[in-house]
Design brief:
Blueprint lengths: L7 H4 L2 H13 L1 H20 L11 E7 L18 H9 L1 E3 L2 E2 L5 H10 L27 H7 L3 E7 L27 E5 L11 E2 L2 E2 L9 E3 L28 E2 L2 E2 L3 E3 L11 H15 L5 E6 L21 H22 L6 E7 L35 H4 L3 E4 L7 E3 L3 E2 L3 H8 L16 H4 L10 E6 L1 E6 L2 E5 L21 E5 L15 H17 L5
Helix pairs in contact: 2-3, 6-10, 7-8
This protein binds calcium ion (CA).
The site of calcium ion (CA) has 6 residues, from loops.
Length: about 550
Amino acid sequence: MLPISIKTKAVGPTPFRHRFLKSMLLSPVLALLATAAAAFVLQTARSRPTFGASAERPNVILILADDLGYGDVGCYGAADVKTPHINRLAREGLRFTSGYCSASTCTPTRFSLLTGKYAFRQKGTGIAPPNATALIQPGTTTLASILKSAGYQTAVVGKWHLGLGAKPQPDWNGLLQPGPLEIGFDYCFLLPTTNDRVPSVYVENHRVRNLDPADPLWVGRKNPNGQPTGITHRDTLRMNWSHGHHDTIHNGIGRIGFFTGGHKARWRDEDLADAWVARSVGWIEKNKDKPFFLFFSSHDIHVPRMPHERFQGQTKLGFRGDAIVELDWCVGQLLDTLDRLDLTKKTLVVFCSDNGPVLDDGYQDGAVTQLGQHKPAGPYRGGKYTIYEGGTRTPFICRWPGEIKPGVSDKLVCTIDLAASMAALTGQTLPENACPDSFNVLPALLGAENAHGRDHLIEEGRGLALRIGDWKIMQHPRRKKKSKRKQVNAQQRDTNVELFHLADDPGETKNVARQHPARVAAMQAKLQALQAAGRSRP
Ligand SMILES: [Ca+2]
């Protein structure tokens, strides 16, 4: 179904190609020998995809933005926010127009990105609460463990939101284990949940950083001691909430959930991006002579959007636009570091987002009132929480100078495919039951000639959607009483099943299910079969 072999033309060792061409010119005998050798090398390359134990394996930096929509950056059409560094990635790399995350909210996309498994296959992978324990169990094959077993140094810096520690709840004052270090990362420096959820502290490896034992940290769902909340002290907030986000007040902003103690360990929202960059740059410098994998997991542009003071007011879009500028600055710092350390040509940089855009996600921060002509989802319908294209079709760029020819690709690729694709990049064979929904789309990611992307993809949000070629069917859940949060990005529709032809109707405005009953039935059956099979990897 999908190509497993890699074209040596696209990714093979360049010196060999040069030698081969030179011999062709020198002598017919040498040319015959060279042809046989080339056939052998091609055969080897097909059975053992690429790079193997070669010293040419690139470093990998995966930059995952948070809630960044298709239309939120300049290289995807944004005019009212400047993103020169993300634009540089696109100019020097391959920009995908059908690049997806696997779900339209944080936790399930992050779960799938690391495990290569659709989140709907595992219970408890919805948006994780503050006291969630580790969602990915030790021993699971992950994107990180794949690269670690290939000899890479591995780190995750930034937002985690995949739970920490063992049941019944994380031991915030002790060892937060298991976590990233138990599933393939050598180092982690984390925002443990989200920036709108408690606790507002950093976690480094197994512990809350800078925690004073005399001031223990407590995290819970009920107000423990009548502390001020976003409801009782709403008039003191410097960013008002619109729904939810009215429990513990920290840094003048109401949060989801309650926490007490750990005062020395608490961060300021304005400093998060600087912290991610400082830790990442230091870690890259320390590991620059080894192959490394850095998962740079930005909290931008998730709510509460409170970028550093130097970015506030940089756009006319309010803090949401300013947070995009902050995110772009982070990308620039990483690219500058690669340039400075002469690692640019030795590093594959992947830029993507964990779900589509949302304007009012619980705070009155100007995202709605100052939107102007900006289109966060570009030409697509819906956004975060939805299974319309705006929810999961997001910026997706791969850059590897000298190996990836700059351009634009319409191949269908997804964040869930990074696990199998990085296994192929490093010449590894996945165990049969590992990464069950991750496809090797490495040729497409590297822009190889005649490469194919996925032939189908399930998109997960409120309900499931299946895209096959240009057709997309959606199975919306039956309507229930909605919470305020679930009304965000909700859109009117009169049916639970919708069918769209994305090439003719990219904005998903014309449901053609009634005109194509046979196609609807076939795609529903395919979706059910993919769910029942427990896996979809070829
Ligand atoms: Ca997100």
